[in-house]
Design goal:
about 20% strand, about 30% helix, binds flavin-adenine dinucleotide, 20 strands, DNA polymerase, domain 1, binds FE2/S2 (inorganic) cluster, about 500 residues, five-stranded antiparallel sheet
């Protein structure tokens, strides 16, 4: 059985398919059809919900944090202990003077932000999250980020952007949800505990939600054929697109050891199940060059659910985090009942979607070493669209230097081979060279010795090779300070993207 708060109602689910998404459950079991299904792949945002969970800040204070998620990507079982807010509840709050409309709804009406209305529930939920998490209008950039995962086909985005601003001009609406959530949590704690794992079953197909790593590895030892899920942003696509019907699903999303994130003496330890939204800001204080890479990973909803463990476990050759982790010489802990083995991220991938992970193992933690003082880092993602798109080429280069002479180079690329891979020939060309454009162009010239990429719907092999060479030239300019380093706030980032 699992238990969560659905709007203002404590809800128990006794039995359900392990692959049932919250979206399907809402629309078929509860009859709440305000949440729409557009794509079922996380791309359109029509199914956006608000999910509340109790979090503890670094002062030890607990509070309820609300964020958006794509309900087409979230399994019902992962809702245990959380607060789900659907579009039906947005005007449930008492605003008689506003004819029961929440300020974000009223602003959408007054700014004409909706036409056919199919996208509107999802947009309302994204605007609601923005509203709850900001006391005052946070500016257009923040609005664009908040709405990056919401497509609208008919209205045009200007009225929606205006509505986002206008919502903050009305009298502020008090947020009623965390009080409900606190009561829900208290009622959970007051109920007699049977120490049973949160669990769902349907026709002998099972879903487990282990709370500790020892419970998790016992389960993976018992069910080595089980599907592991974290945020579900890749896994749920296997369900909707490839009709995967797993017999046993084990979710790591609430396994306490896998949801810890810490920074100590400049080193980062990131639990495999920590969503991007919970570690990226802190990581990017040390590695600001990687900020744009994460800002362009999916959408806000995807980053609120997706994890590093899921990205590595998915073993896609075009996942963005792996090249970064390889270039930074990160390691990962693989855990089973037999213990923990630590390997380098670069040794994890063995072939197209193949890894060294044994059937009974899980990825437990990713560790990123301390930044060396002379490190120069370049992160470039080239994709067909700037926001919410998978990479055609993802290039990460980390070099160290003494007096502007390169002493070491770690160069990792995604989209150029069957796995995210290093470029030993290009690295060798760089070592001993000066930090100038000539050195990087020389290294770019040997790209074909390291890679023979494939042509696919995203790009031809030749495009990928030329793109890599052009990026090397660009990095040469960046490192020799002829142009500013890549950063989403500088127009140069967009120039590099557009000019390729
Ligand atoms: C609309 C959309 C846009 C996207 N855009 C990008 C993008 O721009 N760049 C990018 O890199 N990715 C992108 N993704 C892919 C995805 O969001 C990431 O790969 C994400 O990090 C996956 O994390 P998750 O927790 O959701 O993984 P899940 O879907 O839960 O799991 C993915 C795989 O990893 C395995 N797994 C999960 N956790 C573990 C673990 N602890 N141990 C062992 N195996 C595990 C699962 O069995 C599964 O096979 C996008 C996805 C969507 C839906
Ligand atoms: S239905 Fe399109 S993002 Fe979920
Ligand atoms: S109003 Fe029709 S898709 Fe947005």
């Amino acid at each position: 059985m699992i238990q969560f708060l659905l709007n203002d109602t404590v809800t128990e689910v006794q039995s359900a398919s392990p692959s049932l998404t919250i979206l399907e459950w809402l629309r078929t079991t509860t009859g709440k059809k305000g949440t729409k299904e557009g794509c079922a792949t996380g791309d359109c945002g029509a199914c956006t919900l608000l999910i509340g969970e109790e979090v503890t800040n670094n002062k030890g204070e607990t509070y309820w944090q609300y964020k958006t998620l794509n309900s087409c990507l979230m399994l019902v079982g992962n809702a245990h202990g959380k607060h789900i807010i659907t579009v039906e509840a947005v005007s449930l709050t008492q605003y008689p003077e506003l004819e029961d409309l929440h300020p974000v709804q009223r602003a959408m009406v007054e700014c004409h932000g909706s036409q056919c209305g199919f996208c509107t529930p999802g947009i309302i939920m994204s605007l609601l999250a923005l509203y709850i998490n900001n006391e005052t209008y946070p500016g257009k950039t923040a609005v664009i980020h908040a709405l990056g995962g919401n497509l609208c086909r008919c209205t045009g985005y200007n009225p929606i952007l205006k509505a986002a601003e206008k919502a903050f001009e009305y009298d502020r609406a008090e947020e009623p949800w965390s009080a409900m959530a606190i009561n829900f949590k208290e009622s959970l704690l007051a109920a007699p505990q049977d120490n049973a794992l949160p669990y769902l079953e349907d026709n002998q197909r099972k879903f487990y939600l282990p709370q500790t790593v020892s419970q998790l590895v016992e389960l993976t030892a018992t069910y080595p054929e089980a599907s592991i899920v974290a945020g579900g942003t890749d896994f749920a696509i296997e369900l909707s697109q490839h009709l995967l019907k797993p017999e046993v699903v084990i979710s790591v999303s609430q396994t306490s050891e896998l949801t810890q994130f810490s920074e100590k003496d400049g080193q980062f330890e990131i639990g495999a199940a920590v969503p991007y939204c919970d570690f990226v800001d802190v990581l990017c204080r040390t590695y600001p060059e990687a900020k744009e890479l994460f800002e362009r990973l999916g959408s806000t909803q995807v980053r609120n659910g997706g994890t590093l463990g899921g990205s590595l476990g998915n073993a896609s050759p075009i996942g963005d985090p792996a090249p970064l982790l390889i270039a930074l010489n990160a390691t990962m802990d693989l855990q089973s009942v037999k213990g923990i083995r630590t390997i380098k991220v670069e040794d994890f991938f063995t072939g197209y979607r193949q890894t060294v992970l044994a059937a009974d193992e899980v990825i437990a933690k990713i560790s990123i070493p301390k930044r060396s003082e002379s490190l120069k880092l370049a992160c470039h993602k080239v994709s067909k669209r700037f926001e919410d798109d998978i990479s055609t080429v993802c290039l990460i280069l980390a070099v160290e230097h003494a007096n502007n002479v390169i002493t070491s180079a770690r160069f990792a690329l995604g989209g150029m081979a069957a796995i995210p891979a290093r470029a030993p020939k290009m690295e060798a060309q760089l070592i001993g060279g000066r930090l100038d454009t000539k050195t990087f162009m020389k290294a770019g010239a040997v790209v074909e010795k390291d890679f023979s990429p494939m042509s696919d719907v995203r790009a031809t092999a030749n495009y990928r090779l030329i793109t890599t060479q052009n990026l090397m030239q660009r990095i040469g300019y960046e490192f020799s300070q002829a142009i500013p380093v890549n950063n989403i706030t500088t127009p140069s980032a967009r120039i590099s993207h557009a000019s390729l």
